Amino acid sequence: MAAHYSCQRILELGQRWMICLLVLCLCVCLSGESNARKAPKIPRCPATCSCTKDSAFCVDTKAIPKSFPPGIISLTMVNAAFTTIPEGAFSHLHLLQFLFIENNDIQALSKYTFRGLKSLTHLSLSNNNLQQLPRDIFKHLDILTDLDLRGNSFRCDCKIKWLVDWMEKTNTSVPAIYCASPFEFQGRRIHDLAPRDFNCISADFAVYENFPFHSVSVESYEFNGDQFVAFAQPDSGFCTLYVWDHVEMVFRRFHNITSRSAVYCKPVVIDNTLYMVVAQLFGGSHIYKWEEDPQRFIKIQDIDTTRVRKPNFVETFQLDGEWYFVVADSSKAGSTSIYRWNSNGFYSHQSLHPWHRDTHVEFLDAGGKPHLILSSASQPPVVYQWNRSQKQFAFFFQITELADVQMVKHFWVRKVLYLCLTRFIGDSKILRWEGQRFTEIQTLPSRGSMAVYPFTVGLRQYLILGSDFSFSRVYLWDDLTQRFQPFQELNMRAPRAFSLISVDNKDILLAASFKGNTLAYQHLVVDLSAK
User: Which UniProt keywords are listed (predicted)?
Assistant: First the structure.
């Protein structure tokens, strides 16, 4: 009995020991797996680098290594086999304090190359092939104390202007660096340049709105606080009015004046009343008055067809407090005629230049004396001067010997009077008033041009020459040379007139096109240093 109990007891003890051993083995295994998870593999030093406890020195590296031993605070890269460094290339080295990218052929950096390097205090990009640096590349390097950019071939143009401005304001120490180009800055210390040394504000004319019709005239005007545009449409013969929508920021159709063959629609506001002179090729020309209730134009007057047979252009002006308009007549039998407002309507005032097939008339006030310049298909342009005692325009002088002048427009630059004469066959001319006569100062190629328009946006003086055969050309006045310089080419078909309207902080150039859609271009200011 005792022996049997002893055997059973020994068996029970053995089973307990087996269970303990199994539990012990399981714990050891789990402990081993846990230790394996807690002890990740330590990154090795890249093959092209030599590393110490806290630094790495890399030579002939084909790309920036993806991993380094932990604790690296200093990295040097020389004779690298790459020429660009992309965005966030060092973001995995967030402890980096010293970064030396020297004696390489680095040509381009991303704006965000150094993103994530919050601890960086020293940066060297010396002896590379950098010509420019992306704007604000150092913006987030908050504790950067030393920056070395020596030994690069910096091009000192608008793309470096931001660096000049940054160096003026930063507390970071930057040893002297020099301009390699362009010629006017070559060899100059960048530290000695100022932001004002760079002319980086440019502009661009971009299509803003496309009108699905042809037109031969365009006039903008303001009435009752709104901005309007009037187009003469050769296909329908109508005068079509558009109004600026301040919400949608576009022109929307407002009203039509039904006519047979409108070639010019000229608005004039007299004593808060809107009138529209509608010049027609057939059926006579008329004057319309706008009524508010109901909203419509009503015809109030016909223009004498014995005087105005084939109108080509209408100009309005004020003299001694009185309103006038003049119609350039291009027929062989008609004459350019002036009409004066007389409380109830416009009445014939004077006939000018009969039998000369006038194409355009320009009003200008020079030296306190009003003048009219008439362009003609049959003779060179002539000037008429206002005689105040007789209240008549009298022939003054012939501007030039040039024939085939389609249009003459004037403009002022720093109180100096200039004329632009545009020609369909020959070159256009820029003339300057010398006190007694106009002197030619510039020739502009303009084959096929029937319209010219000088205009200003801010401080910029522009001139656009339309063309029936090629691109229309925009020119910009250069104060240094006192000449127009080519600025931009615009693709429009057979433009006949232009008008500038400024509304809601937008400057919009409207172009009436005889063979294509009428277009509106927005003048956009472009800061070249912001790219």
Answer: Glycoprotein, Leucine-rich repeat, Repeat, Secreted, Signal
The full set of domains in the chain, from first to last, is 44-198 (3.80.10.10), 202-527 (2.120.10.80)
Residue 288: beta bridge partners? 276, 299
- CB atoms < 10 A from the CB of 214, how many? 21
User: What's the mean pLDDT in 125-151?
Assistant: 96
DSSP SS3 for 23: helix
The letter for the amino acid at 85 is I
Pairing of strands 55-59, 49-51: antiparallel
Instruction: Report the C-alpha dihedral over residues 482, 488, 491, 492, rounded to 10 degrees.
Output: -30
Side-chain-side CA neighbours of 46 within 13 Å: the count stands at 20
Residue 164 is inside which H or E element, if any?
helix 161-169
Interatomic CA distance for residues 233 and 201, integer angstroms: 37
Give 253-296 pLDDT, tens digit per residue. Answer: 999 999 889 999 999 999 999 999 999 998 889 999 999 989 99
Neighbours of 190 (CB within 10 A): 18
The total of other beta-carbon atoms located within 10 Å of residue 384's CB is 23
CA distances 77 to 21, 103, 391, Å, are 57, 8, 85
Question: In Å, how far from its chain's centre is CA 158?
Answer: 16
Q: What is the pLDDT of residue 529?
A: 83
Calculate mean pLDDT across residues 411-436. Answer: 93
Going by their DSSP bridges, the two strands 518-527 and 460-465 should be labelled as: unpaired
| 131-156 mean pLDDT | 95
CA distance 157 to 529: 8
**For 28-47, what is the mean pLDDT?**
63
Q: Identify the three-state secondary structure at position 436.
A: coil
Between CA 346 and CA 300 the distance in angstroms is 10
What would the two tokens of residue 440 be?
Answer: 């030619």
Does residue 12 carry a pLDDT above 60? Answer: no
- Preceding peptide of 294 cis, ω within 30°: yes
Residues 512 and 231 sit within 8 Å (Cβ to Cβ): yes
The 3-state DSSP class for residue 198 equals coil
Task: Look at residue 28 in the predicted model and tell me its pLDDT.
Answer: 43
- In the structure, what pLDDT confidence band is assigned to residue 348 with cuts at 50, 70 and 90? very high
Encode 206-266 in three state secondary structure.
EEEEEECCCCCEEEEEEECCEEEEEEECCCCCCEEEEEEECCCCEEEEEEEECCCCEEEEE
- HSE-CB for 327 with a 13 A CA cutoff: 35
Q: What is the dihedral of CA 137, 143, 148, 152, to 10 degrees?
A: 0
Share of the chain above pLDDT 90, in %: 77
